[in-house]
Amino acid sequence: MNNAYFSIAMVALIAxxxxxxxxxxxxxxxxxPQSKRLxxxxxxxxxxxxxxxxxxxxxxxxxxxxxxxxxxxxxFGYLEKIPYRRKIRSRLEKLVDYPR
Length: 100
What we know:
Blueprint: H1 2-22, E1 41-44, E2 47-50, H2 62-79, H3 85-96
Antiparallel strand pairs: 1-2
């Protein structure tokens, strides 16, 4: 069983390692949504630490949900353009789907 997990991990690491070489270059510059920044500062043992994205920590807030939705549009819009993505998924499913 450990060999199966090891094999899956190796396939995933190889895929991640060669992905930058194989992924298509975007034809146009990707336009990421603007992320608002707050002037929030925490103090830890007398050291001030800026935390401008603190608002993102509340995953149930409407602002956070809208931000995630906009980020997903950009991300999945790019991923869906990868021509061999379905082949990779199909192959990985075949490798993982075996009698146990």
